[in-house]
Write a structure and sequence with these properties.
Blueprint lengths: L6 H31 L2 H19 L7 H26 L25 H20 L2 H12 L4 H8 L3 H19 L5
Helix pairs in contact: 1-2, 1-3, 1-5, 2-3, 3-6, 4-7, 5-7, 6-7
GO molecular function, one term: DNA binding
Organism: Sulfurifustis variabilis
InterPro entries: RNA_pol_sigma-70-like, RNA_pol_sigma-70_dom, RNA_pol_sigma70_r4_t2, RNA_pol_sigma_r2, RNA_pol_sigma_r3/r4-like, WH-like_DNA-bd_sf
Length: 189
């Protein structure tokens, strides 16, 4: 005779799995949103909205689908933020928005290497160069690059998350890689 989990226990395990998934994707999602919004507080709001949307609409979906679904929701929230910001700028031009951002989240990433000062300085220069190079990419190229290279989504998942064709993903990714390779020079792996 096989044991069956009661529905309450299954729900608890599912909730714990979703909590682990969201905790694992939170920091990377914040950095993606930070690049898109160029504002720490706005990025936090976008990620929080994406997480609530993920829980509300997709918590019941299979765990294997959560990565692509979350990034679809995140990209949707980023597009919503852009639309809202565009409307605010059009209607409130007399209110100058403070473009000063807080601390760069890339500088807060834990260093898995040794505390060697020369290595830390080199890493800091490389991360700064990467951040500047990513900022120079077009929005679509940056988002495709981050979803493909950083999040590890495949072409189809990236296309689904961004709401574009697979050919468009391939084109934007190729252009982003070439631009980053050219910009980063010695820092490119």
């Amino acid at each position: 005779m096989t044991k069956r989990l009661d529905p309450g226990r299954r729900t608890l395990n599912r909730k714990q799995a979703l909590d682990r998934f969201l905790a694992g994707v939170e920091r990377r999602a914040f950095i993606i949103a930070r690049f898109a919004t160029r504002d720490t507080d706005e990025a936090l709001d976008v990620v929080q909205e994406a997480m609530f949307g993920m829980i509300r609409h997709y918590a019941g979906r299979p765990e294997e689908e959560w990565g692509a679904l979350f990034h679809t929701v995140l990209q949707s929230r980023i597009r919503d933020w852009r639309r809202r910001t565009g409307v605010r700028r059009r209607w409130r031009v007399w209110l100058a928005r403070d473009e000063a951002t807080g601390e760069d989240p890339l500088h807060n990433l834990p260093d898995p290497g040794s505390p060697d000062p020369a290595r830390e300085a080199s890493n800091h220069r490389a991360l700064s160069a990467l951040a500047r190079a990513l900022e120079r990419l077009s929005t679509r190229q940056r988002q495709v690059f981050l979803l493909r290279a950083w999040e590890g989504l495949d072409v189809a998942q990236t296309a689904g998350a961004m709401g574009c064709s697979e050919g468009s993903v391939k084109t934007h990714y190729s252009r982003a890689v070439h631009a980053l390779r050219e910009s980063l020079g010695d820092h490119w792996p």
